[in-house]
Specification:
- This protein is α/β, with parallel strands linked by helices.
- The chain has one domain: Alkaline Phosphatase, subunit A.
- The protein contains 10 helices and 21 strands.
- The strands form 5 sheets. A 10-stranded mixed sheet has the order 7-6-5-4-12-1-13-14-2-15, with helices on both faces. The chain has a 5-stranded antiparallel sheet with strand order 17-18-19-20-21, covered by helices on one side. Strands 3-16 form a two-stranded parallel ribbon.
- Helix 5 (about 245-260) runs parallel beside helix 6.
- The longest helix has 24 residues, at about 290-315.
- The termini are close together.
Length: about 525
């Protein structure tokens, strides 16, 4: 075992096609991973959200297992996604920090991925939405006007319709199966992260062109759809996305795949843009929450979830489909656009009472919503406080679908977590490791949280009002009444505990196993 513990749409009548599809998936469940972006522990109704209704996510929790101690691997996007898909901690590979839009493919074709696992075991595989893990062989040298290689087909995905990075980074086009979707030959695409193209306006120099959204900090380079971005881009024409249609577009492609996949069970990696900046939901969601664009983007995310669920019901495969709803990291309110997100919270707490947020090594950085729904096995609503980590996704799926658990399947995932993920035991991992944006590591057990003494600024320096949790001294927090009191550092009076957990953390970091 390579991952050691270190000692510690609406429901329709069943058609013949739907019956056949259901029979096909009797033994091997379909899997749909719904991966939100920057969605906080307190942003969902079933986790205590205020001012925003999330009935579709709540419905999954009401008949599934909702976790209160689930963690992403990192408090930023690229490293958490890398770990989820590879089962490897991000610090083990260079280039896994927040990626530019023209980054090379971070997951190399020779690496084993979750998609490879499913594909090898008879599944059709697909990825839709945000990618942010790079494309092509060399950073900054992609030809966006031709097929890009390597692409997602080289790491196990049969189909893909993705954003190369994030909505706030160029290129602002969808990549479908390795090439720009709806490519416009009259407007060839050029991308640079070092210099602007002659004659192209920017948010910094041409604020009058920011007709949809202005920046609060950064995000003042190329303008697409009346919104400033990170990076410079020229061209695109009719291939350029409209931010208000992103959710509709990726959801439609996911639904089309689900409805068309009739010969095999399927794995869908559905990574939404919501609620990442720039938040610019479709007009039919605007004003739904009274919290401005951020709140309305949460409502839009919930609609995406409901639409995918309806497609599963229409196909007749809902009962034997594992639906996982979670987030890549914790929340951030002002992350670079003047969308009044801070001013319009009105009592809503995206952090859910936790300290920190995106980028941070405090709890709100990596503790995330996590719901597992599988009617064929989870028969009633459950709430679990078991420690679970997204690093185990590959191993858990391998166990559930009956794939052999070999030593090389996941570099860092822990075996034997399947029952915890479906709520059949409250015994989860012995510990969870998280990484903040400056690579400070933390370790969480059922009783303690330890943050290593790496040092750094106390607040995120580029704009968000978020405590980093960095310190030059060891930090140890004790869980009291179910929560860590991260305002009281008890490291000094618990030196033996600090010594023990710091040794575990060093063993994990250095890949020492016993």
């Amino acid at each position: 075992m390579k991952g050691g513990a270190f000692g510690f749409l609406s429901l329709f009548a069943m058609t013949p096609l739907a019956v056949a599809a259901q029979e096909c998936c009797t033994t091997k469940p379909n899997v749909v991973l719904i991966y939100a972006d920057d969605l906080g522990y307190g942003d969902i109704g079933c986790y205590g959200a205020k001012n925003v209704a999330t009935p579709n996510v709540n419905a999954l929790a009401d008949s599934g297992c909702r976790f209160t101690n689930a963690y992403s691997v990192a408090s930023t996007s690229t490293p958490s996604r890398y770990s989820l898909l590879t089962g490897e901690y991000p610090w083990r590979k260079k280039g896994t920090d927040v990626a530019a839009g023209d980054a090379a493919m971070i997951i190399s074709p020779e690496q084993y991925t979750v998609a490879d696992l499913f594909k090898e075991n008879g599944y059709a595989t697909a990825a839709f939405g945000k990618w942010h893990l790079g494309l092509g062989a060399e950073s900054g040298k992609q030809n966006w006007n031709a097929p890009i290689s390597p692409a997602l087909s080289d790491i196990g995905f049969d189909s893909s319709y993705i954003m190369a990075a994030t909505a706030d980074r160029v290129p602002c086009v969808f990549i479908e199966n390795g090439a720009v979707a709806n490519y416009d030959s009259t407007a060839p695409i050029y991308v640079s992260y070092s210099a602007n193209f002659e004659g192209e306006p920017t948010g910094r120099n041409n604020p009058e062109l920011l007709y949809n959204m202005r920046h609060s900090h950064g995000h003042d380079m190329s303008i697409v759809n009346g919104i400033g971005r990170i990076g410079y881009m020229k061209g695109g024409g009719s291939a350029l996305w409209r931010d208000e249609n992103i959710a509709d577009s990726i959801t439609a492609h996911a639904v089309e795949f689900i409805k068309g996949c009739v010969e095999k069970p399927f794995f869908v990696y559905f990574a939404t843009n919501d609620v990442h900046v720039p938040r610019f939901p479709h007009e039919r969601f605007r004003g739904m929450t009274g919290m401005g664009m951020r709140g309305d983007a949460i409502a839009q995310f919930d609609w995406c979830v409901g639409t995918v669920v309806d497609a599963l019901k229409e196909r007749g495969v809902y009962e034997n489909t594992i639906i996982i709803v979670t987030s890549d990291n914790g929340p951030v309110v002002d992350d670079g656009y003047a969308d009044a997100a801070e001013e319009l919270l009105n009592g809503h707490d995206p952090m859910g009472g936790l300290r920190g947020g995106k980028y941070s090594c405090f709890e709100a950085g990596t503790r995330v919503p996590f719901i597992v729904h599988w009617p064929a096995r989870i028969k009633s609503a459950l709430v679990s406080d078991a420690l679970v980590s997204q690093i185990d996704f590959m191993n858990v799926m391998a166990g559930i679908i009956g794939a052999p658990i070999v030593d090389s399947i996941s570099p860092d995932g822990l075996c034997g977590q399947e029952k915890a993920w479906v709520g059949e035991t409250l015994q989860g991992r012995p510990f969870v490791v998280g990484m903040a944006s400056n690579h400070t590591l933390s370790l969480v057990t059922d009783e303690w949280k330890y943050i290593e003494p790496k040092g750094g600024l106390l607040m995120v320096p580029w704009g968000p009002k978020i405590e980093t949790g960095y310190s030059k001294v060891p930090q140890l927090f004790k869980r009291v009444n179910g929560e860590f009191n991260e305002s009281v550092n008890v490291a000094t009076e618990n030196s033996a505990i600090v010594e023990a957990v710091s040794l575990i953390l060093e063993n994990v970091r250095n890949n020492v196993r016993n």
